[in-house]
Amino acid sequence: MIRSGLPERINYVKGPPVPPWLQLMLDSLQPLLWAGLIFTIPLTLLSFALGLALGLLTAVVRLFAPKPLVAVARFYVWVIRGTPLLVQLFVIFYGLPSLGILLDAFSAALIGFTLNIGAYTSEIIRAVISSVPRGQWEAAYSIGMSWGQAMRRTILPQASRVAIPPLSNTFISLVKDTSLAAAITVPELFQTAQRIVATTYEPLILYIEAALIYLALSSVLSALQVRLERRFSRYGGYLEART
User: How confident is the model at residue 160 (pLDDT cuts 50, 70, 90)?
Assistant: First the structure.
């Protein structure tokens, strides 16, 4: 009989067994990341973009509008800054249906976060616009610019350089605050972790894993913030050198 030359029995060397807690984290990583990709990140980006636009409008109203509109803007900022974000979400999602206004969970969260971000960013934008020297307005008017042109071409470019750090911090905080949307049944990252906990009965492991994902997102955004600040600081130095 011709032998093939191969051993009749192969002994496989097995590696060390994976600890149960690590296996649980590996198994739950995909649904957590998927929830973050589908809900947490879009909710953050949409809320910040809409809130930033609302904040700019509110800041402009408070600085340049007639007194009745200024009073409305100040009242809006006062209410939002003086009440907890979680309560605001509950009022929108659970309270408005009593008035016949029905919203799905994602829309309610989007409205709540937009209103909250709008109030806080309006104070930042109002402060940085006020910090631009009055002479910049006068220089813009002296070369024939209208108010809108002066705001768009002269004031906002200078104010944006100062606003980058506080607005970046607001954005990073919003990433973490989206976890509050779990309270109104938005299936984002944190609520997905809660659902897995309900079936595995391992809250410590799952909540630590969710915290690590939030930490990773915040770390990436913080690194981008540093790069953005450096770029704007170089741009600002270039402008100052030219003037």
Answer: confident
Query: 236 pLDDT exceeds 60?
Result: no
Map out the domains of the chain with their CATH numbers: 46-242 (1.10.3720.10)
CA distance 230 to 189: 31
What's CA 141's distance to the chain center, in Å?
A: 36
Q: Band of the pLDDT at 12, cuts 50, 70, 90?
A: low
Nearest to 51 by CA among 70, 69, 76: 76
Banded pLDDT at 161 (limits 50, 70, 90):
confident
For the entire predicted model, the pTM comes to: 0.87
Reading the block at residue 123, the tokens are 């104070």
* Burial of 134 per CB tally in 10 Å (0-12, 13-18, 19+): exposed
Estimate the crossing angle of helix 105-131 against helix 156-177, to 10 degrees: 150
End-to-end, the C-alpha distance of the chain in Å comes to 95
pLDDT of residue 6: 47
* 188: DSSP letter: S
**Exposed / middle / buried, residue 122 (Cβ in 10 Å: 0-12, 13-18, 19+):** buried
Residue 13 has what DSSP assignment? P
Residue where the block lists tokens 């509109």? 69
CA distance 17 to 38: 33
The answer to whether the beta carbons of residues 133 and 115 sit under 8 Å apart is: no
CA 52 to centroid of chain Cα atoms: 11
Q: Identity (one letter) of the amino acid at 46? A: L
Window from 10-19, 185-194, 208-217, 218-227 with minimum mean pLDDT: 10-19
